[in-house]
Each structure stands twice: as structure tokens, then as C-alpha cells.
Amino acid sequence: MHNYKKTFLVSCMVALASQASIGLIESDFRVSAGIITLMVLLFYYKDLTSVPTGILSGIMVYLLRLLVYYISWGNINDVIISYQQEMVVYIIYPIIYLLLLRGKNKDNINSAFFFMVISDFSSNFVEVFLRLSTDIYASLKEVVITLFFVSLIRSAIVWAIISVIKYHKMLLIKEEHEERYKKLLLLSSQLKTEMYWMEKCMDLIENIMSESYELYEKINSNQDRDSWGDKALTVAREIHEIKKENGLIIRGIRGITENELKDKSMDLKNIISILSESMNREIKRTGKDIKLIFNTKKNFYIAKHYYIMSIFRNLIMNSIEAIPEGKKGFVIIVSHEEHEGRHNFTVYDNYGGIKKETLKHIFSPGFSTKINYSTGEVNRGLGLSFVKHLVEKQLGGTVSVNCIEGKETCFHISISKKMLEEEV
Predict the structure, then answer these.
(1) Domain 266-420, CATH homologous superfamily name and number
(2) Which of 96, 295, 347, 379 could form a Cys-Cys staple with 368, CB 3.0–4.6 A?
């Protein structure tokens, strides 16, 4: 429905632009700005289908011309057939352009310019032929030269407008990147401050451990009983100090992340781009043979994009860590679809599945089956509980998991459009 509305609006804009025209050659043939507007808008709105938009534009141009003529002269009988022939340009132009552009880079405006000239010339030549019929042969050379220069000038205008738009977009992207870089620097400096307090807490913890062990030794050996109370008071005082410092750290980090969450929204396409780059880099680092695939149909803006980034990063990392080294043919697929006012996401991998006896515990904090027996390192088991917290508590959604033991695992996340999507 959204594309239908956009197609109709574009067609109306083309029809209005077509009123700016000049007459050439000895006929009713006119060169208008309609084609210029059509090509610029088709290039800008890449989700529009060229041929249907061209056909509807031709119809709208025809109807508007009849309306203007009727208002001016009160009778349209003389131009009903003549104005119909102008519709041919808006139908033939996008067809020829698409045929010439097939398999080529559609974003390369320099190569597209050549195809625009050919499409413009061909569609105009067909219109002139229909208008002049056999009389065209008498002035064929003049017609060809005129139409060629018209096509060249009109295509050059389209090229210039699109180039300006692309340059403007590049400037906006550059400014956005610079702004984000400044914020990143500020964020880094703020986090370094919090790291200082964390290091200070580590020192306090070391002191407490030492004091506690010393107190334990004295109690165990029943020595220096008079100092036990002072030692216990010192331990309690330092624990209280750590509690205060920890509170400062939590408030500081929470303030940083909350400010970031109020930042400008991000669309799903950019989130996927960032995830794809970072997760593929992680896969390469592990040396595992894993193919990461993203299947998304609709692009939309997400206000709480940091939450979404964290959710999918944790789920993808969970799959990467579970998949063993040395084997091939593994795939992780992240999919999205919209249904009945909700955004539904899935994260699927084709490794192993989860054992039934552990399935009910996977969202519990601290639960983990990932142990590196060579180093003794145990995964903290916080990733999936964190995902559950973000989905259910922060975004008001649901998260569940289905698996076939020995074959595959699939996490399902459902969040309402109202909570997740931001209109821009």
C-alpha cells in the first residue's frame, strides 16, 4: 500500500512538471520537464517499479493536459487523440532504460547518462513518428538532430540533479559520521573515568581480602583476640566504601548509556550492516567455517537501536561460540518479518540444538554449558538472560526458543511495532 501511494504521488508530480514545456517541430509535439522529474524521482526512490510508475505518470499527464485545455478553451474534442500520443514517451522511456540497464550498476549515474540519452531519444522518436506518420521522412534529418539534442540536454539536466542529490547525501552522511565520532570520543573519555573508579574498587577489594584473611588466621589460631573487633570493623568499613564506589560506577555508566539511547534513531538496514561487519570479523577471528545470512524485507527506523544491537549480537555470539572448530557447513540466519502489528525476528543455526534437560535453564543468569577445558575458563552465562531482560523488560516483547536436538536451534523474538518502530 505504501508503494502505491508513493507511485501515485510521483505520477502527480510528473504531471505537474509536464506543464512546463516547449513546442518543437511542426506538430503538437512538445518537450516537457515531466521526463526529467520522472527519472530523478525513479533514481531517488529505488523501491518504485519503473514501468508501472511510467504508465501511471503518462495517464496523469494526459488527464491533466485535458483538464488544463478544457479550463482554457471549454472543449477537448480537438486534443483527445493528440494528447494520448504523449503518453507513449512515459511508457516507452522506462522500458528501454531498464532493458539497457539490465545487469549494470544502477547507482553509476555516469554510465546511466548514456542509457538515458538513448531512452529519451527513442521514446520521443516514436511519439514524433506517431504524430507525423509518413511526413516524418520529408524532414527525417531535422527530426533526428532536434530529438538528439533534446535528449542530450534533458539527460544532462537529470544527471546534474541526481549528482547534486548524491553529493548532498554524501555530505549529510559525512556530517553524521563526524558527529558520531565526536560522541564516541566523549563516550570513551566518560568510560575511562568509570574505569578509574572500577580500578579503585579492585584495590579496595584486594585490601579487604587481605584484611579478611588476616582476621581468619587470627580467629583460627585464637590469637590477638582484642584486635578482632577492629579488624571486622575495618572490613565492614571498606565493604561499605566499595558499595558507595560501585553505586557511583553504576550511575555513571547508566547515565552514559541512557544518553546514548536518546540518540538519533537508526534504521534496520544500518543495524544489520554493522552487525554483519562485526560478527563476520568475529567468525574470522575464531577460524570457524560459519556463513552468516540476514533475511530482511522491510526497512524501518528503530528508536531503541542499542537494545536491538545488543540482543542480536548476544544471540549471534551464542551461536558462534556453540559451533565447534574444524567442521564445515554451518550457517547462522537472522530473519525478520512483520505480522499483525508486530516485528518478528528469528536467529537460527544448524548446529546441534540444545539438550532437553538444559533447555529450560538457558535464560537463567549464570547458567552456561560453555567451558574451555584447556584453559579452565567458564562462560559467565549472562548473554541469554540479558537478551530476555532486554526483550521482555525494556521492549515489552517475548522471546522463546525451539530446537531439534542434534540438528538446529531457533530463537524467536516478537516486539510490537508501537514499541520498536519510530516514524521519521
Answers:
(1) Histidine kinase-like ATPase, C-terminal domain (3.30.565.10)
(2) 379
